[in-house]
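Long-time lurker, first post. I've been practising inverse folding by hand and with some scripts of my own, and I keep getting stuck on stretches where the structure tokens seem ambiguous. Below is the full token string for one chain I'm working on. Before anyone asks, I'm not after the true native sequence, just a reasonable design that respects the backbone. If someone could post their per-position residues I'd love to compare against what I wrote down in my notebook.
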């Protein structure tokens, strides 16, 4: 068991000035020239330590909407602080703070030489000024007397003043002032205000678990705020605090374990804040860029891109429909993000139904969460890559039951949402009606990597390893950020031009100086005609009506609005992504923890009413505008222009019905027309669609699977199957050398002028006629058995040739001849 650290104020060791001299000298060397003379300068200019308890908080940072008229949030605009005596502060708080902030507080003299040395090393190696190496005394000095700037001069002054304060105040006085002045986030200063604000209790009555939470927050109050999006990290850090307390003997291991198992209940957030999810996104950005001290004390004026009128409208429609969705589908949460396609500016962000509703985890910002599967709302990216590769909106893709996996042990045969199969459909109809089977084929033809690369170019920041999701990607197999989806869809609305996402218009310091100002940054990432083609498809109500109906939540009478739904397995995520020429919107409905909704909580049903209600308000307040129509996309290949029935002609043998050969008698030949239906892989090489048709299409691993699905569907739909009339692939098997009659002429005699021959004839088919030729002239025929050949000739001792020719019922011919004198 470790020996417990004792809070005993030891006699101050000598050598304080020598230590200060060392610190100043080291910092002076790093600063480049300050040197030992800095000691005299900083000592002469030190603030009066008697003013330590009279800290004056600088001007607060204010965050405004885009018009600069609505104050969304004021950071530390009014301190919430109640000073309490040191002895009235719970010992758990003191122990927890000591163990994570400054374990050697009761033994050092204001500075920690080892910590400073480590900080200097980090600064030199990383080429920047860090905030490391600060004791509790230094932190108090920094908050009470110094500016938030990062410089070696301030570090020197901080160290010198810390040592001076240690010589004038007791450890308990310093620690008490520290606990009464440190910020805990928002407008809460001091341990008493934190205890009251977070737990509705006093600093004296905090439990061990609560004390550990407050100690955990000190390091990064905004990040670890109980009302922010990092509660898991806060709990993890709180548990670390408890483990450290047990490790040094402040508490027992059993007490730490018991505290870790206790549930934490935070008091409702009482702070006035508008658009809280958006505000904390902005606040986090400001802290990363300018530092926590500057944000809390620098008096910044921040003008954001938020349109507060639209924000209020979005919040109201989400609350109204969200309550209905909870009753109908057990969907407890919803989120909405809206982007200006022409600028990339974020106009609306609603991260949940109610930020202050802890029961529904309202403080969690779903709009920036990277763990939401997009369902079918990812399909437009695959179709865009499909068109980019050279396919057309009229390309026919068969919506039939298909097995896509080449591994029998891992089958993959998705179905449509209604378990129906529609046979041949065009690509544009398949997208508008959100059919799954054609979409998987589109992804395969477009290429998974091509699709992911295009999605990244358009603004999707997730799905780093497409091999993990494979063909399921197009049905929502990956994970996306709702805000990313709004930005990516804005590329379609903006004719293929992507604007850099932004949510800050400008940041000014307390004197009005501009620290940063928004500038348009854009890049063309998709051909404009492809973007317009996708827009035309997604806004065509007639095209999607067979599935969604004529007047669904995606329909706006008299207005052009492009929209795409998405629903994941077991109704865990419901989406509508859509846009007008002036606004791109992402709507998500579901449960933060991934619990499935009740059956029926599909995208159009659960997210559709929110999308419709929000968009409808925007259409009435913006000038009416239409999308630019695309130019037709066509191809020289019939199969890509919708001609999926291929008509060919072949020369056929009438008897066998097979392909004619040179042995087929001319009168047995005829030219016939045939209609074929095959998978698109039969006609094109997906890696080079402009190349000639593949000689061996079955080399493609998907060919047999797709072809089999089509043939089975036609077999199960006889009325459709009558269309197909495939040409034979085998050659005439009747008129062959093997099937020709074999004729043999036996010995014969001449009686006067008459020669009678009875030939021997064999063969696979019945002989119907025998003809006899004398010197090439037909002189006799016989159509009955036994066949005879009767020839009359003269007696002039000339040489003659007799030829016997036999014909079977298929006109196969066999001959034999003999010469005589």
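-- Answer (accepted) --
I ran through it position by position. Result:
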């Amino acid at each position: 068991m470790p020996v417990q650290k004792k809070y005993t104020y030891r006699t101050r060791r000598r050598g304080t000035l020598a230590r200060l001299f060392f610190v100043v000298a080291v910092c002076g060397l790093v600063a480049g020239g300050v040197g030992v003379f800095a000691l005299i300068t900083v000592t002469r200019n030190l603030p009066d330590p008697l003013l330590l308890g009279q800290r004056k908080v600088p001007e607060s940072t204010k965050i405004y909407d885009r018009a600069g008229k609505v104050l969304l949030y004021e950071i530390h605009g009014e301190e919430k602080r109640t000073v309490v005596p040191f002895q009235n502060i719970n010992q758990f708080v003191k122990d927890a703070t000591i163990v994570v902030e400054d374990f050697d507080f009761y033994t050092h003299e204001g500075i920690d030489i080892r910590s400073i040395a480590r900080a200097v090393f980090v600064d030199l190696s990383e080429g920047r000024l860090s905030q490391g190496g600060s004791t509790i005394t230094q932190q108090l000095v920094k908050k009470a007397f110094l500016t938030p700037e990062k410089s070696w001069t301030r570090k020197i002054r901080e160290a010198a003043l810390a040592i001076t304060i240690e010589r004038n105040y007791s450890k308990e006085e310093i620690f008490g002032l520290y606990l009464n002045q440190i910020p805990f986030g928002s407008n809460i200063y001091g341990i008493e205000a934190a205890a009251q604000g977070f737990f509705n209790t006093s600093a004296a009555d905090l439990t061990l678990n609560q004390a550990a939470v407050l100690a955990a927050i000190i390091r990064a109050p905004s990040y670890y705020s109980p009302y922010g999006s990092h509660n898991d990290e806060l709990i993890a850090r709180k548990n670390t605090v408890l483990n450290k307390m047990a490790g040094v003997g402040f508490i027992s291991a059993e007490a730490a374990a018991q505290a870790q198992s206790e549930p934490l209940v935070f008091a409702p957030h009482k702070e006035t804040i508008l658009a809280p999810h958006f505000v904390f996104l902005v606040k986090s950005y400001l802290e990363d860029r300018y530092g926590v001290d500057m944000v809390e004390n620098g008096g910044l004026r921040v003008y954001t891109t938020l349109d507060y009128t639209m924000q209020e409208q979005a919040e109201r429609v989400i609350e109204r429909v969200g309550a209905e969705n909870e009753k109908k589908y057990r969907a407890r949460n919803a989120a909405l993000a809206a982007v200006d396609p022409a600028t990339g500016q974020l106009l609306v962000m609603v991260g949940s139904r109610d930020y202050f509703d802890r029961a529904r985890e309202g403080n969690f910002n779903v709009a920036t969460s990277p763990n939401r599967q997009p369902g079918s709302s990812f399909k437009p990216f695959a179709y865009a890559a499909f068109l980019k590769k050279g396919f057309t909106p009229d390309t026919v893709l068969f919506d039939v039951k298909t097995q896509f996996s080449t591994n029998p042990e891992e089958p993959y045969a998705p179905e449509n949402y209604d378990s129906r199969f529609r046979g041949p459909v065009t690509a544009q109809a398949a997208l508008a009606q959100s059919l799954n089977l054609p979409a998987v084929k589109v992804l395969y033809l477009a290429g998974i990597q091509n699709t992911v690369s295009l999605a990244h170019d358009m603004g999707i920041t997730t799905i780093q390893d497409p091999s993990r999701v494979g063909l399921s990607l197009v049905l929502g197999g990956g994970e996306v950020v709702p805000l990313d989806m709004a930005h990516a869809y804005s590329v379609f609305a903006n004719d293929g031009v992507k604007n850099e996402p932004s949510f800050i218009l400008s940041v000014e310091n307390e004197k009005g100086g501009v620290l940063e100002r928004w500038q348009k940054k854009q890049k063309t990432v998709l051909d404009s005609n492809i973007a317009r083609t996708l827009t035309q498809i997604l806004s065509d109500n007639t095209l999607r009506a067979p599935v969604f109906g004529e007047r669904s939540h995606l329909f706006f009478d008299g207005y052009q609005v492009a929209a795409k739904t998405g629903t994941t397995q077991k109704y865990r995520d419901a989406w509508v992504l859509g846009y007008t020429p002036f606004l791109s919107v992402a709507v998500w409905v579901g449960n933060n923890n991934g619990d499935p909704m009740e059956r029926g909580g599909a995208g159009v049903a659960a997210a559709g009413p929110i999308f419709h209600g929000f968009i409808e308000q925007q259409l009435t307040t913006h000038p009416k505008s239409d999308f630019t129509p695309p130019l037709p996309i066509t191809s020289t290949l019939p199969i890509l222009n919708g001609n999926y029935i291929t008509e060919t002609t072949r020369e056929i043998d009438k008897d066998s019905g097979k392909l004619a050969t040179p042995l087929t008698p001319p009168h047995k030949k005829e030219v016939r027309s045939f209609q074929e239906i095959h998978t698109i892989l039969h006609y094109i090489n997906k890696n080079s669609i402009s190349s000639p048709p593949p000689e061996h299409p079955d080399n493609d691993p998907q060919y047999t699977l797709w072809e089999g699905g089509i043939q089975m569907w036609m077999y199960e739909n006889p009325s459709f199957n009558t269309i197909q009339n495939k040409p034979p692939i085998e050659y005439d098997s009747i008129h062959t050398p093997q099937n020709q009659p074999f004729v043999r002429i036996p010995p014969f005699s001449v009686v006067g002028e008459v020669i009678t021959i009875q030939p021997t004839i064999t063969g696979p088919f019945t002989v119907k006629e025998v003809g006899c030729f004398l010197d090439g002239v037909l002189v006799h025929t016989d159509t009955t058995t036994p066949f005879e050949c009767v020839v009359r000739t003269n007696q002039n001792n000339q040489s003659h040739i007799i030829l016997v020719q036999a014909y079977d019922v298929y006109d196969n011919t066999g001959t034999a001849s003999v010469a005589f004198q």
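A couple of notes from the structure itself: DSSP finds 24 helices and 25 strands in the chain. The chain has four domains: 16-57+78-269, 375-394+444-502+520-621, 644-721, 737-820. Happy to go over any region you disagree with.
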